[in-house]
Design a protein that fits this description.
The chain has 396 residues and is of the alpha/beta class. The protein contains 11 helices and 15 strands.
């Protein structure tokens, strides 16, 4: 079969790009042709690995006529400006989560994409994981009755991984709400199908040396009557991946000897050197990480229907029905992050809208903002920018 690969430009050659690289490398439908990145080391690594053209400023990248779509993987406080520039230059957009850090920036991106006549996808996020899609399909089929309740939980050492100063400042989009809650919100919204209506939450900001939200619990209500609890701690010592068959977020086996690595490493560096640690995790050359053997995931998720509880695993969905237990496997992961790249390919080459559009990303961003507001005021927050999954047909 012959096809024309999508010529892609990357904005930001940092950690997010490193995590997407195995996906781009494994998928012949994409060719990395250019990148915009202020750091010279990563620009020259990109040129030598991909032979592509690099720019220190996104404005120059946007004038490159070869580029059809851009993957925006710059820090999230820049997503608004970067996405608006690229959309204005007629490039399709894959904007890493969160879409932006406030609703007006998110709205500006959506308006620019519409005006530029380009597709806008918010991702990757864990709502693209194949077991999440499988569970959503089972729920939507009504096979086990109505969906009543969802629980999503994740305990990690997120706050103790190397961070830039902005990643520890809520005003700049730092903390676990913008970077991590957004994954859980995406997953829960996809499973629930209907529009979220309101949310109440509490947050934890417990380490004065890292003064941002590191934990939260939220209770979300949906139009269908389903409710969901979302709990995340980035201060954790217990690692909830142990409840996911010891498979990491990226679908790889977790070596037990890695226990405590994040805190151990951080304790060894004087504070200013943390930036160097973070930079060491950005793109410097092509590296082969451990191969994913299972799907990516974002911690334990259980969806309770009238006649079965569905437990998501890194390989599929365990079904605890009224009188029997069974397992449905998600299609084996033939390549990393296939879901988000299928969405990008479908949008650019076949004009198909995925679920995770700009409006989808804005709705998840609104829920992130609502977590912060509810924690501040102690009150529930009504949600106004929510959308349902397009195939949602109402409560069966
Ligand atoms: N989906 C995922 O799995 C995932 C994982 C990590 C990060 N992210 C998201 O990716 C984004 C980047 O986070 P990160 O952890 O990779 O940060 P990072 O600091 O590792 O990388 C950001 C990169 O952008 C570059 N940059 C800074 N200013 C720029 C500019 N004006 N133009 C172009 N490039 C610029 C930096 O030099 C750096 O290389 C965030 O929105 C984050 O939420 C997503």
């Amino acid at each position: 079969m012959t096809f024309e690969p999508i010529r892609l430009g990357v904005v930001g050659l940092g950690r997010a790009f490193v995590l997407m690289l195995p996906a781009f490398r494994a998928d012949p439908r994409f060719r990395l042709v250019a990148a915009a990145e202020p750091r010279a080391e990563s620009r020259s690594a990109f040129e030598s690995d991909f032979g592509g053209k690099t720019y220190s400023d996104i404005k120059e990248l946007c004038t490159d006529p070869r580029i059809e779509a851009v993957y925006i993987a710059s820090p999230h406080e820049f997503h608004g400006d970067h996405a608006v520039l690229a959309a204005g230059a007629g490039k399709h957009l894959l904007v890493d989560k969160p879409l932006a850090i406030n609703l007006s920036e998110g709205g500006r991106i959506i308006t620019a994409a519409r005006a530029g006549g380009v597709h806008l996808i918010t991702g990757p996020s864990h709502s693209f994981d194949a077991p999440v899609k499988l569970a959503a399909d089972i729920i939507e089929s009504g096979e086990f009755g109505r969906l009543r309740m969802i629980q999503a939980l994740n305990y990690t050492d997120f706050l103790y991984r190397p961070r830039r100063p902005e990643e520890l400042s809520t005003a700049s989009g730092g903390g676990v709400i913008f970077s991590q809650a957004v994954h859980q919100i995406d997953v829960v919204r996809l499973l629930a199908g209907s529009k979220a209506t309101r949310l109440v939450a509490m947050t934890g900001n417990w380490d004065a040396a890292r003064p941002t939200e590191g934990a939260f619990s939220a209770l979300m209500q949906f139009e269908s009557g389903t409710f969901a609890t979302l709990t995340y701690s980035g201060y954790a010592h217990f690692d909830s991946d142990l409840w996911m068959n010891n498979i990491s977020e990226l679908g790889t086996q977790k070596p037990p000897a890695a226990y405590g690595n994040a805190r151990r490493t951080l304790a060894q560096v004087p504070h200013p050197d943390e930036i160097a640690l973070k930079t060491a995790r950005t793109y410097m050359c092509e590296t082969e990480g451990p191969r994913a053997t299972e799907h990516e995931h974002f911690g334990p998720v259980i969806a309770l229907c009238d006649h079965a509880d569905l437990k998501l695993t890194p390989s599929g969905v365990e079904i605890f029905a009224d009188t029997s237990r069974s397992f449905r496997a998600a299609p084996a992961p033939d390549r990393p992050r296939g879901g988000v790249l299928d969405a990008l390919w479908g949008a650019v080459r076949a004009d198909e809208e995925p679920i995770q559009t700009g409006e989808w990303g804005l709705a998840s961003l609104e829920a992130c903002q609502a977590i912060l507001e509810s924690a501040r005021t102690g009150l529930p927050v009504g949600l106004k920018h929510q959308i349902s999954v397009p195939s949602w047909k109402g409560t069966p």
